[in-house]
Design goal:
21% strand; 6 helices; alpha/beta
């Protein structure tokens, strides 16, 4: 927690955090740090196990990263229910070109269709979208809708 608080003043362009189980306090510190990193271009969270409440906080911090270009939330335990919060964040990220949601087994075809819908509403087209190894990655309708909102779909 102290390390995250100490980095809030830095002008980070990339942040990687892999294989962690943050406590609620650590997730709150991550939210505060992400919110403070106005120059952040890439955020990579991989195998970071968070609760629904922590995920909401982190997504709220991500929404403040107006210059974010790459967002990787790989194997984070993201579920269909969390996509509502993600869809709120998406319109705020006008520079976002790449999203990696791979290996989030709680995302089904329903969630992927929701993601495609919110990207369409936000008038967004991504360069790259990774949805490998999701529960819904074999849902042909969802994948077809996602292909309409990105140039390269990794499924």
């Amino acid at each position: 927690v102290a390390v995250l608080k100490a980095t809030a003043h830095l002008k980070l362009r990339r942040f990687f955090w892999h294989k962690a189980r943050p406590t609620e306090d650590q997730a709150l510190a991550l939210y505060a740090a992400i919110e403070a990193w106005k120059d952040l271009r890439e955020l990579h969270l991989r195998s970071v196990e968070v609760t629904d409440a922590s995920a909401k906080r982190i997504l709220a911090g991500i929404a403040r990263c107006k210059n974010l270009e790459v967002l990787r939330l790989f194997d984070m335990g993201i579920t269909d229910a969390m996509l509502e919060d993600f869809c709120v964040v998406l319109p705020e990220l006008s520079h976002l070109d790449e999203i990696d949601l791979g290996w989030n087994g709680g995302l089904t075809g329903v969630g992927l269709r929701k993601l495609a819908e919110c990207m369409t509403k936000a008038n967004r087209k991504l360069e790259v979208l990774n949805v490998v190894k999701l529960s819904g990655y074999e849902d042909k309708v969802a994948l077809e809708k996602l292909r309409e909102v990105c140039f390269y779909l990794d499924a």
